[in-house]
Structure formats: C-alpha cells, structure tokens
Prior knowledge:
Layout: H1 5-8, H2 15-27, H3 40-55, H4 63-72
Amino acid sequence: MAQSLSDVAIKQLSVTERLDLISVLWDSIPDSLEELPIPDWHREELERRLAAADADPDGAIPWEEVRQRLRKKE
C-alpha cells in the first residue's frame, strides 16, 4: 500500500529537507513532452496565442513595463 503525503509527516521536516523534497519531486517529472498528458485543447490554445502574438508583435508589453506596473501595486 502506498503512503499518502499526510503519512509522510511533511510538516515535521525542516525547511531545508522540504526544499530538498521539492527538488527531488521536480526532478522526477519527465523531461519529454510526449510523456506528459497535455490535453489537445491546451495545445490548441497555445497555438492560438502564438498566432495572435505573431499577428500583432507591437501589441506586447515590454517586460520592464510589466515589472514597473507590478512594483507600483506593492
């Protein structure tokens, strides 16, 4: 029987141990997109957004401007 996350007592781990666990979990995710279950509608939406960005390259907001706007909200 597999252990559930609550059985592992994650909260009893130190912050460093929890960060290490996150790293191990992250590294266990497959690198190959073919191994990940990506729904067709996700791919279609990405294609739609890429096409919209390509059709209007001047419609984008530069990253510096986005960052400034976000910092003003803090």
